[in-house]
Amino acid sequence: MKRILDHYGESLRGDLAQIAKWVAPRARVLDLGCGDGTLLHWLAVQQSCETLGVEIADENVLACVKRGVNVIQADIDRGLAMFARDRFDAVVLSQALQATRETERVLREIGEIGRECLVSIPNFGHWSHVTSLLSGHMPVNKRLPYAWYDTPNFHFATAQDFEELLTRLGFDILDRAFLDDDQPIKFMPNLRSTLAVYRFQKRSP
Amino acid sequence: MAIAPPPLNSVGPIAPQTADFLEPLTLKSGQSFGPYQLVYETYGTLNRDRSNAVLICHALNASHHVAGSRPDDPRAIGWWDNMVGPGKPVDTRRFFVIGINNLGSCFGSTGPASLNPATGEPYGADFPVITVEDWVQAQARLADRLGIKQFAAVMGGSLGGMQAMQWSIAYPDRLRHAVVIASTARLSAQNIAFNEVARRAIVNDPEFHGGHYYAKNTVPKTGLSVARMIGHITYLSDDDMAEKFGRQLRGSDDYRFGFDAEFEIESYLRYQGEKFSTYFDANTYLLITRALDYFDPAKAFSGSLSEAFAGIHCSNLLISFTTDWRFPPERSREIVQALLAQRKSVTYAEIDAPHGHDAFLMNDPRYHHLVAAYFDRIGKECAV
Fold first, then answer.
1. Which of A54, A61, A76, A78 to probe the B interface (max B CBs under 10 A)?
2. CA–CA separation, B136 vs B154, rounded Å?
3. Do B347 and A71 touch (CB under 8 A)?
4. Distance, in angstroms, between B305 CA and closest chain A CA?
C-alpha cells in the first residue's frame, strides 16, 4: 500500500490512511475521538477539507489546537446533540467505537449527521486473540495493550459481528478494508486482520 | 532609590492613556450620550500592517489595567497579568494588546461619578443605562482612533466574553478571532435573580439617596459590600469554598451563640465586601449588572442564537470550566452548538478546574497552554 505521509513526514496509521483515501477533496469531515488531530490535519492540508474533531482528553485537545485543527472537547457517549443541526460529508470514528459505552446509539447518531461513516475497529477475531483465548487468557498485545480489568475499551467485536450490527441498524456497507501492521489483508481477513475499516451509510428509505 | 527591574515576563509599569470623543453615541436604549472619555492601556507594538492587535474586554469589577503594574505603584498588578505579557499566553512580544475601560465604569472612563456637563454635578442616577452593545460600539470608536481596522482577536472572560461575541456579531469584518471564556449568550433566571438581590442591597441602603449620593458626600457602602458578597459567592465553587474555609471557626472551637462573623467564610466575605466598597462605585455596580441582564443577542432573532451568529466571519475559541456554576459549561456548549449550526469555525475546551467561575482568572497550566497554543495559531496568521 502506498504510504500516505502526514504534515511531519510521518506515515499515517494504516486505518487513517485508508479512511483518508475514502474522503473526497474539500469534504466537510467530523472526526469523533480525533486523538491528536493527525488525520484531520492531513485532510485539511492535503485535501482542502473543512474539518472538525471531537476529543475528550485534555492532552489531545491541546495537540489539536497546536496543529491548528478545530476541536470540540466533549464525550461522544453523552450524545452528539451538539452536532445535530449540522451535516457532514463524512463522519470518522477511528478505533474509538470500542471505547464507547452506548455503541449502538453512537452508530445511529453518526448515521444521522454524516452522509458517509468511516469507521475502523480492532478485529477481535484475529488468530492471535483466538489463540490467546484458547490458552485461557484475554489477549494483551501491542494492538490491544490493556489488561481486562484496566481498559478504556468496553466493546469488542469481530469484523463479522460488526457487519451484522451495521446491517441490523439499517446501514449499507459501501467499502471495507482489512489490515495487519498497516498492510492490507485479502485472504481470510476475519482471522488474519487486526483492524477492519468500513465505509457505510444509512440505507435510503 | 534603586528601582527593581520588572520581572522578565511582565510588561512592567504602564501608564493609562485617555481618548476623548465629542460625537455622542446612540445607545441601545435610544438615548444619545456624549461627549465622553475612554481610558485604555496598550502593551506590545502594533506591527506595520496593523494586523496584530488584540482587544481585551473586562468583566464586572475589572478595568483597562490588564497587565503590568502602575508607574507609581509596582504592586498594582493588572487583573489578567498571568495571561498577558512577554512569553505569556497572549504574548506581548507578538501582539499589540489593548485593555479598555468601559463606559459607566468607575476606573477612569466616563461613568456615573463623572461630572455631567449639563449640570456641573456628577451624573449619579442620571447616567444612562448602558448595554454590552453600547460598550462594543464605543470600543470600535477607540479602535478607529488607533487606526485598527481589524483585530487579530477580541478576547474576554465572563462579561468580557459577551463583548467578544458582540464584536463578532456587530462588526464581523473587524476581528479574525473571538476568544470567549467562561461566558454565556444570555443570563439565566437564576443569574438575574442574584443580580437583583445585589441591586436591592444597594438601592435600599439609606446612603444611596436615589443614586445621587456623591452630592451628599457619602457612599452606600453597606449595600455595595453586601452586593459584592453575593457576587463573590457565585464566583467560587462549593468545593473550593469547602477546601478554603470549610466550617472553620475563627479564634475558637466553640460557638459563641451570636451573629458576629464566627465562621471563616463569613469573615472572608465581609472582608471582600468591605474592601470592594472602598474602591468600587455603587451606581457602576447597578449599571454593569443590568448590562449583564440585558445581553441576549438571540432576542432580535426570535430567540435563535444560531441566527444571531449567521453573519459572523471570525473563528471562535470557547473555554468553560467544569466547576463554574455561574456560567456553567452547558452555557458555552449552547454557543458552540449555535456556531456549528452556522458552520462557523469553532474550538471548544472544557477545563476541569476546581475554582468555579473565577477559574478564568487563575493560573491553570491546561487552560493557559491551550490559550497559548491558540494564540500561536493567531500569531502565525498575522504578517509581521
1. A61
2. 11
3. yes
4. 13
Q: What 3 state SS string does B31-77 have?
A: CEECCEEEEEEEECCCCCCCCCEEEEECCCCCCCCCCCEECCECCCC
Q: What is the DSSP pairing of strand B96-100 with strand B90-91?
A: unpaired
What's the angle, vertex CA B273, arms to CA B270 and CA B274, rounded to 5? Answer: 85
Q: Which of residues 26-45 of A touch B (CB under 8 A)?
A: 28
Return the pLDDT at A1: 46
Interface of B with A (CB under 8 A): 306, 315, 333, 336-337, 340-341, 343, 345-352, 366, 369-370, 373-374, 376-377, 380
What's the pLDDT score for residue A155?
74
Q: B237: Cβ–Cβ under 8 A, 6 or more apart, which residues? A: B323, B324, B325, B354, B355, B356
How far CA B258 is from CA of B128, B169, B249, B261, in Å, comes to 43, 53, 13, 9
* Furthest-apart CA atoms within chain A: distance in Å: 49
What residues in B contact A50, CB-CB < 8 Å?
Answer: 343
Residues A97-147 pLDDT 10s: 888 888 899 999 999 999 999 999 888 777 888 788 888 888 888 777 888
Residues 6+ apart with CB under 8 A from A103: A97, A154, A155
What is the identity of the amino acid at B334? E
Closest partner residue to A83 among B340, B350, B376, by Cβ? B340
Inform me whether the C-beta atom of residue A181 falls under 8 Å from chain B C-beta atoms. no
* pLDDT tens digits, A178-194: 988 888 888 888 888 88
Of B277 and A160, the one with more pLDDT: B277
- C-alpha cell recorded at residue B125: 442616577
Of A149, A61, A187, A168, nearest to A108 by C-alpha is: A168
How far does chain A reach from its first CA to its final CA, in angstroms?
36
Active site residues of B: 158, 324, 357
| Single-letter residue type at B351 | I
Ranges of chain B whose pLDDT falls below 70? 1-7, 383-384
Task: Give tens-digit pLDDT for A20-54.
Answer: 999 999 999 999 999 999 999 999 999 999 999 99
Which runs of consecutive H residues, i.e. helices, occur in chain A?
14-22, 38-47, 58-67, 103-113, 127-134, 159-168, 189-192
- Partners of B349 on chain A (C-beta within 8 Å) are 58, 61, 65, 71, 73
- Mutation choice for A interface testing from B322, B340, B351, B381 by most A CBs within 10 A: B340
A79 — contact with chain B (CB < 8 Å)?
no
pLDDT confidence of residue A2: 52
pLDDT of residue A104: 92
In Å, how far are A42, B78, B237 from B300, measured between CA atoms? 40, 36, 33
- Please state, in angstroms and rounded to a whole number, the distance separating the CA atoms of residues A107 and A77: 11
- More reliable by pLDDT, B80 or A82: B80
- pLDDT bin (cut points 50, 70, 90) of residue A10 is low
**Cα A85 from Cα B263, distance rounded (Å):** 50
- For cell 457612599, the residue is B219
Residue A158 pLDDT more than 80? Answer: yes
